[in-house]
Specification:
Protein name: Very-long-chain 3-oxoacyl-CoA reductase
CATH superfamily of the largest domain: NAD(P)-binding Rossmann-like Domain
Strand content: 5-15%
Number of helices: 10
Number of strands: 7
Mean pLDDT: 94
CATH topology of the largest domain: Rossmann fold
Shape: globular
Keywords: Endoplasmic reticulum, Fatty acid biosynthesis, Fatty acid metabolism, Lipid biosynthesis, Lipid metabolism, Membrane, NADP, Oxidoreductase, Transmembrane, Transmembrane helix
CATH class of the largest domain: Alpha Beta
Order of helices and strands: HHEHEHEHEHEHEHEHH
Strand order of the largest sheet: 3-2-1-4-5-6-7
Membrane topology: Single-pass membrane protein
Bound molecules: NADP nicotinamide-adenine-dinucleotide phosphate
Oligomer: single chain
Helix content: 40-55%
Largest sheet: 7 strands, parallel
Distance between the termini: 70 Å
Structural class: alpha/beta
Radius of gyration: 23 Å
Catalytic activity: a very-long-chain (3R)-3-hydroxyacyl-CoA + NADP(+) = a very-long-chain 3-oxoacyl-CoA + NADPH + H(+)
Family: Belongs to the short-chain dehydrogenases/reductases (SDR) family.
Length: about 350
């Protein structure tokens, strides 16, 4: 239809049925305004606005930051950067040697200005004695920040029917029970002191279902919804709870060794997370209260996924990607076996 005939059709329609025309025009205008507003909010939060000042949570005032999974990767970096911001640090994980090395690095970076403690625990064991010991330590500290970072994924993408039962159990126990137990132990103190920040490290696999990592994906969806509910409960006590929707970051778990525009180092990722506390960035206005996608390229990816809204397409893309990764991992294992 030419422009002239379209205009004449529209004017005829307007004469015949001005209400229909008006309603359609209003819906179109509202959709456009919402899109422009959302884009503006995502842009300003990601690139311009600063997050909450960490001093609000007790930095430089003797408060502690507790980081689970602090011996490596993203957790280690949270420990280092929160120490530099002026928190005493409780390092929680299994490997004593690696935790001590993180403690030494903190002492070195902060010239001994902050205190560091180590608490050894294997969250997969769900051992009541170890959990009670951790709870006792936590309730004796003025905890300003908790980073629920510990997490486990599948050893490689695998169909759920073929997953090893123990692997599924470990993933659920670490990712869900660990987060619940530690959060439950620090909250009463935070409520009493009327301040606190809890950062729950989630994954994009918990936002877009991830075939061949089904159990991991499900546990990270739990972390996301649990965070939203808890955030609303404790806001009245001046406590901020956020779910960090994390895309790929260089680490042992991701098996990615080189950073790129889409894959930051843990240092780069944590720097953006700690500078955007209280904001949503890429997750703004997407019906996910409490979710923050802090790193700039992750924020853009998250925004686009939700603007396009074609989740089924992303799920099937992830499925074929995981099939390919599994094929390559199995081939590598085969080659290594032949060498021995
Ligand atoms: N890297 C990514 O691309 C990515 C993407 C999305 C989400 N995430 C999430 O980010 C978080 C951190 O991942 P990461 O990539 O930094 O992993 P990572 O480098 O493998 O580090 C995992 C940390 O967790 C500790 N840990 C593992 N199992 C444990 C257990 N059973 N009990 C106690 N501590 C345990 C490890 O220390 P020990 O061995 O000393 O115990 C280590 O400190 C996870 O929740 C993960 O799901 C990561």
């Amino acid at each position: 239809m030419s422009t002239a005939s379209l205009q004449s059709w529209l004017s005829k329609e307007a004469t015949v049925c001005p209400w229909t025309y008006g309603v359609l025009l209003s819906i179109g205008a509202l959709t456009l305004v919402k899109f422009v507003f959302k884009t503006w909010v995502v842009f300003t939060q990601t690139f311009i606005l600063p997050g909450k000042n960490l001093k609000k949570f007790g930095a430089t005032k003797g408060a502690w930051a507790v980081v689970t999974g602090a011996s490596d990767g993203i957790g280690k970096e949270f420990a280092l950067q929160l120490a530099s911001a002026g928190f005493n640090i409780l390092l929680v994980a299994r490997n004593e040697g690696m935790l001590s090395a993180v403690g030494a690095e903190i002492a070195n970076r902060t010239a001994g200005k902050v205190e560091t403690r180590i608490q050894l625990i294997d969250f997969a064991k769900n051992d009541p004695a170890a959990l009670n010991a951790l709870q006792t330590v936590l309730s004796s500290l003025d905890v300003g920040v908790l980073v629920n970072n510990v997490g486990k994924s599948h050893n490689m993408p695998t169909y759920f029917a073929e997953t090893v039962e123990q692997e599924n159990e470990d993933i659920v126990t670490i990712n869900i029970n660990g987060t619940l137990r530690v959060t439950h132990a620090v909250l009463p103190g935070m409520i009493q002191r009327k301040r606190g920040l809890i950062l729950n490290i989630g994954s994009f696999a918990g936002q877009v279902p991830s075939p061949m990592l089904a159990t991991y994906s499900g546990t990270k969806a739990f972390v996301s919804i649990f965070t939203s509910a808890l955030a609303d409960e404790v806001r009245q006590h001046n406590i901020t709870v956020q779910h960090l929707n994390t895309y790929f970051v260089v680490s042992k778990m991701s098996n990615i060794r080189k950073s790129s525009m889409l894959v930051p180092t843990p240092a780069g990722y944590v720097r953006s997370a700690l500078s955007k506390v209280g904001l949503s960035c890429g997750a703004a206005m997407t019906g996910r209260p409490g979710t923050l996608t802090p790193f700039w390229s992750h924020a853009i990816a998250d925004y686009l996924i939700h603007v396009v809204g074609w989740k089924a397409r992303f799920i099937s893309y992830t499925h074929s990607l995981h099939k390919d990764i599994r094929r390559r991992v199995l081939r590598k294992l085969e080659r290594e076996a032949k060498k021995q």
